[in-house]
Amino acid sequence: MKVEKYVFLWMLGSSLLLTSCFSSKKVVYLKDMQIDSLYAITRQNEQKIKQDDKLSIVISSQKPELSIPFNTRTGSSYRVDAEGETTANSSLVTKENGYIVDRHGCIEFPVLGLLHVEGLTREELAQQIRQRLIDEKYINDPIVSVELLNMKVTMMGEVSKIGVLSIQDRHVTLMEALSRAGGLTTNACPDKVAVIREEGGQRKMLMADLRSASVFSSPAFYLQQNDIVYVQPQAARSSDKENRNWRLYSTGIGLISIITSLYVLFK
Questions:
Q1: Is the separation of the CB atoms in 266 and 13 below 8 Å?
Q2: Which of 12, 25, 31, 182 lies 20 to 30 A from 257 at CA?
Q3: Where are the beta strands (DSSP E) in 200-264?
Q4: Is 52 helix (H, G, I), strand (E, B) or coil?
């Protein structure tokens, strides 16, 4: 009878072990973040303009007719009323095509000609254009708006939706990008999230730990143009054949455990 009980306990333990192996693993974020504790907010450093960036540059002024030559790509049109006032005809405004930064880091801008923009921030470029418009006496009160049109981030590894994210906002955090990619899979290592970034014509890898509040101060927290986010796996994924074999094996063990239990109980 003792032998039968030992067999019963072994079979039951084996089935419980297999069940735990196949149970879903939960990914826990920010485990060390304390309730009601304060954490400093680290502001994102302004991104530098890079080759192949697509820029929207819009010039405006109190006298709209002065900005027309600098906004030829917007397709904007203006009309002059009987009193000589100039207003934009918004119904004819077309989509901004943007200026592509070439391999030399330059763009061809109306009237001002070739501008070297690589390495500048959006604000620095806007100020540079504004100053030239004033110094060269084109517009006395120009307002210059510069935006990045083609920001994208590549999501790879253990995320639910692998692919390229198009970012419409000025910036995106690592948490936001992972959420847009459907979150981490159960095979992900939340403490091994790599961000591969282009800087100065080279690439470097930054690591982030999603389990810790330290991720907020990581240089990888605010993503930049062309970043690659790679979430490392906990273990190599099993093939479909291996998964089927494990399921059959666990089902068989479960059936044997039930039969053994019934035999021990009713003998």
A1: no
A2: 25
A3: 202-208, 222-223, 228-233
A4: coil
Counting beta carbons within 10 angstroms of the beta carbon of residue 235, is it exposed (0 to 12), middle (13 to 18) or buried (19 or more)?
exposed
Evaluate whether 224 touches 197 at the Cβ level (below 8 Å).
yes
Stated pTM of the model: 0.70
Is residue 88 within 8 A of residue 61, CB to CB? The reply is no
Spatial separation of the C-alpha atoms in residues 55 and 116, rounded to whole Å: 13
Q: Which residue is associated with the tokens 């302004």?
A: 46
Distance CA 257, CA 264 (A): 10
How do residues 26-68 score in pLDDT, each as one tens digit?
677 888 888 888 888 887 778 899 999 999 999 999 998 899 9
Is residue 264 classed as helix, strand or coil in its secondary structure?
helix
Beta bridge partner(s), residue 172: 223
- Interatomic CA distance for residues 124 and 116, integer angstroms: 12
CA distance 216 to 219: 8
Condensed to tens digits (0 to 9), the pLDDT of residues 79-121 reads 545 555 555 554 334 345 789 999 999 999 999 999 999 999 9
User: CA angle at residue 190 from 186 to 195, to 5 degrees?
Assistant: 120
DSSP SS3 for 124: helix
